[in-house]
Amino acid sequence: MSTDFWSPxxxxxxxxxxxxxxxxxxxxxxxxxxxxxxxKGKLFLETVLLLPLVLPPTVVGFLLxxxxxxNSVLGNLITWLFNxxxxxxxxxxxxxxxxVAFPLMYQSTKxxxxxxxxxxxxxxxxDGANKWQVFFFISIPLAxxxxxxxxxxxxxRALGExxxxxxxxxxxxxxxxxxPLAIYMAIGSGNMSLAWSWVICMIGISFLMxxxxxxxxx
Length: 218
Description:
By secondary structure, this protein is mainly alpha-helical. It has helices spanning about 5-35, 40-50, 55-70, 75-80, 90-115, 120-125, 130-140, 145-160, 165-170, 180-190, 190-215. Helix 1 (about 5-35) runs parallel beside helix 5 (about 90-115), helix 1 packs across helix 10 (about 180-190) and helix 6 (about 120-125) packs antiparallel against helix 7. The longest helix has about 30 residues, at about 5-35. Part of the binding-protein-dependent transport system for molybdenum; probably responsible for the translocation of the substrate across the membrane.
């Protein structure tokens, strides 16, 4: 097939992989910190962390523009550091995918860490393990199924991200045009055969990802 066909697929997978790595690391850290912990403001913080899951993608995209736009402090700092704004770049697509995929990873890892038997962790501490040894050799292995499931779901969500990416990263062929955006453009131009090809690929990848989650939990 032509380069024009593979380019959006390749770009989508690259963006989903990078955002997936970020989400997995952040999800594990936040999930472990929030699990079995009570403090003032926890409910508010958890609501904020899960908010992108229910917000319309256009709202997420709008907020990203406000946070990272040229009129924001963070946006100006990024422009000063890298000599270019982050909007309408490959990294903007990564940020958008990361934000919308994070809640799935966070919820899954928090549930996994909450299911870990605290007595096992305490026994390891009594035997001389420090908090990081307990974390890496006890907590993570015992919550591994939830972590892997969350990672797969997050990757799949990042792969299918559309609205926030369109608003924040734009629709630049070969640069930020992911497969969902390419499907949208193909339908708009009446190229249904090309749109169907991308749709079938996305359905196939998503099906395999979800099937692996079910097999993992079986």
